[in-house]
Amino acid sequence: MTTVRLYASLRELAGDRIVEVSLPDGATVRDVLTALVQARPALAGRVLDEAGQVVQYVGVFVDGRDIRHLRGLDTPVKPENEVFVFPPTAGG
Amino acid sequence: MQLGGYADHIARIDLSSGEIRYEGINEEDARKYIGGRGLGVKYVFDNGPQVEPLSPDNILCFLVGPLTGTNVSMSGRMAVVTKSPLTGTVTDSHHGGWSGARLRWAGFDGLIFKGRSERPVYAYAEDGKVELRDASDLWGKGAHDTVKTLLARHGDDVSVVAIGQAGENRVRFAALLNENDRASGRGGTGAVAGSKNLKALVIKAAKRMPKAKDRSAFKDARKGALDRIMESALLAPRKGGLSVFGTNSLTNILNAMGGYPTKNAQLTSFDQAGEISGEKVKETILVGNPTCHACPVACKKEVETSRGKFHVHMESVEYESAWSLGGFCANADRDAIAYLIDLCNDYGMDTIEMGTLLAMVMEASEKELITERVAWGDADMMVDLVHRIASRTGIGDTLAEGTERAAKAFGDPSIAMTVKGQGIPAYDPRAIKGMGLSYATSNRGGCHLRGYTVASEVVGIPVKTDPLVWEGKGQLCKAFQDLAAVSDSLDMCKFSSFAERAEEYAAQYAAIVGIPMDAQGLLTIGERVYNLERHYNNLVGFREGSDSLPQRFLNEPSTSPASQGQVCELDNMLQEYYEARGWVNGVVPESKLKELQIP
Q1: Residue A90 has what pLDDT?
Q2: Inter-helix orientation angle B334-347/B143-154, to 10°
Q3: Minimal Cα–Cα distance from B229 to chain A, Å?
Q4: Binning pLDDT at 50, 70 and 90, where does residue A92 land?
Q5: B133 near B160, Cβ under 8 Å?
Q6: What is the ipTM of this complex?
Q7: What would the DSSP string read from start to end of B490-536?
Q8: Can you list the residues of chain B whose pLDDT is less than 50?
Q9: Residues with Cβ < 8 Å from B452, sequence gap 6 or more?
Q10: Is A15 on the interface with B (CB under 8 A)?
């Protein structure tokens, strides 16, 4: 099982801060996020857009590394990895 | 002066003689430096760089910009500009709420104080006139009581900007607070006010928005900017992350990245960060979402904690303050953090510096450099020390000198997480490398707002850069610094830059002021402001080698999985940065001064 940690408004929409998704070997971040939205339909359109890309400024991390600096949605995910998903946020 | 947006009216108040003079703004200065930070730096520069910060010779400037007081979105801020008693550099510290707008409605672009009053006074400003009034009944009161008393005394349509006891006692990082509990926190501007026996400003003015020179262009420019804010995933009212969760929504993301300095930066993440995050605050103690003049975002998070020793109803728990008094001190008590922020506000002290100071004390205690036992996360001791610092009692007298001086007094300067004498903010340079460069090259000491590369390195605005890569950060840092100098000189809220670009700022500026302006023109002004500050600091003595970071960030690798093994490659970034700036080892050459027409 891969652990997905949700934050801020995504947490409120999903009703959970942690969602566990079950994936086959060789899964990618794309697979994780697709499974996440299937498990929590309220997240539809909030994580992946209609084109299947990450919504602008949504932060997706694998073990704390932003996937934009890994292989994007093709970043491999193993069961022991944690995926963090943050909605757009900033501050000072 | 023919430029629109300005009142063309500055009051110069000599607190020694009581004399008050009025003058217009030099139009060349207005065109070159705009207002707020830029104009303030020019005034401080003209006053001479060798003044002692807490002497009567230092000036304390309260300034706004040509957009302040209009209905330009997110425009309601005030700059307080002076020579800092904490760092010895020029400093500017801004606050929101309504006092900036009200200063403009009262008919002023700024108030500049010099000298020292023999007895405590407050300055009362209304309809273009300033009077000095007796403040002896207010001396000794906290900022909250002072504000309450003056609001009751002067009725409606009033703003108050005040110091608490910390400013009176010249705590080097004392702050100024206004009636909305917004702080000009950094750099010790409150200590400068206290050294002048200036307790407060009172500004009385009903709303009277200045008109744009080109009203038709202004209507379009303002709407264009507002549309971007309303559609922004970060700023949209009640939808955007900043609006719903406030700045403290950064706690979990920075922690996940291994970029959350913890235990005086001995660690780079905090295992209890979730307990003090924006999400947790919203779930448990949030009671309101205050805002500022002309701002639809409402990023403030008003809280009320549970009954008990840390019960408080206070204005806002911000990321920086939650971090400094929370994770940086290994304190996971949410209620205690809110209580400590409010206590610092009432005494009038910078919460960021307070956190870096208390974390240093905890490490000093751990290393037995001091006899006081202050355990990591001991909120009761933190409260006790805040009281002692504000009153300069016992060890508080040493601590009131700021983190760096206190660490030196304890015998180990390496435990002070400071830059140019000012405590670092809430982004670990080992994991967010551009911020390491930003801190080191900040003209006012450790600061995240001078060049907020986090927007690029964490969020992806305007482009996404890798926080763990040092290459390219020199140019990036310069770009953010120049833009921030623009927004600080217009005195726009910096968060507007999450939706607006220099193009939107330029369009609004051009319409109000009535002169052509484009994005590059504004950025050149920003570059000029940054270079004037640097030139001032060079003349004070900040020259080769002064752009540095605590050794911890250079030599002690990050401890978190996400940023494992990382250090901050500052020297490499400095080379890139100086080249981008056209500086020689941190010194502005004559050729650059000439190119930018400084001063």
Answers
A1: 87
A2: 60
A3: 14
A4: confident
A5: no
A6: 0.97
A7: HT--GGGGGT--HHHHHHHHHHHH-S---HHHHHHHHHHHHHHHHHH
A8: none
A9: A92, B438, B480, B484, B494, B497
A10: no
Mutant choice from A46, A54, A66 vs B, greatest count of B C-beta within 10 A? A66
> Among 1.10.3720.10, 3.60.9.10, 3.40.50.1820, 3.40.50.720, what is the CATH number of B10-204?
3.60.9.10
Looking at the complex, does the CB of residue A88 fall below 8 Å from at least one CB of chain B?
yes
Residues 6+ apart with CB under 8 A from B158: B102, B150, B151, B179, B202, B203, B204
| Residue A56 near chain B (CB below 8 Å) | yes
Report how far residue B346's alpha carbon sits from residue B354's, in angstroms, rounded to the nearest whole number.
13
Q: How close are the terminal C-alpha atoms of chain B, in Å?
A: 19
- String of b and e for B93-132 (b: at least 16 CB within 10 Å)? bbbbbbbbbbbbbbbbbbbbbbbbbeebbbbbbbeeebeb
What pLDDT digit, counting tens, does each position of B377-425 carry?
999 999 999 999 999 999 999 999 999 999 999 999 999 999 999 999 9
For chain B, give every domain's residue range: 10-204, 246-423, 433-548+569-595
Residue pair B261/B328 in contact by the 8 Å Cβ criterion: yes
What does the alpha-carbon distance between residue B506 and residue B520 come to, in Å, rounded to a whole number? 9
Burial class from Cβ neighbours inside 10 Å (0-12, 13-18, 19+) for residue B1 reads middle
Q: Which residues of B touch A91 (CB under 8 A)?
A: 242, 246-250, 318-319
User: Domain B246-423: which CATH class?
Assistant: mainly alpha
Cα B131 to chain centroid distance, Å, stands at: 28
Q: Do A88 and B240 touch (CB under 8 A)?
A: yes
Query: Does CATH number 3.40.50.720 belong to domain B433-548+569-595?
Result: no
Mark yes or no for CB contact B468/A69 under 8 Å.
Answer: yes
Tally of CA atoms within 13 A in the half-sphere of B578 that contains its CB: 19
Q: Would you say B405 and B515 are in contact if contact means Cβ atoms under 8 Å apart?
A: no
CA distances from B313 to B181, B199, B306, B336 (A): 12, 25, 9, 12
* A8/B244 CB distance under 8 A: yes
Highest CATH level, class, for A2-86:
alpha beta
Residue B355 DSSP symbol: H
| Exposed/middle/buried for residue B149 (C-beta within 10 Å: 0-12, 13-18, 19+) | middle
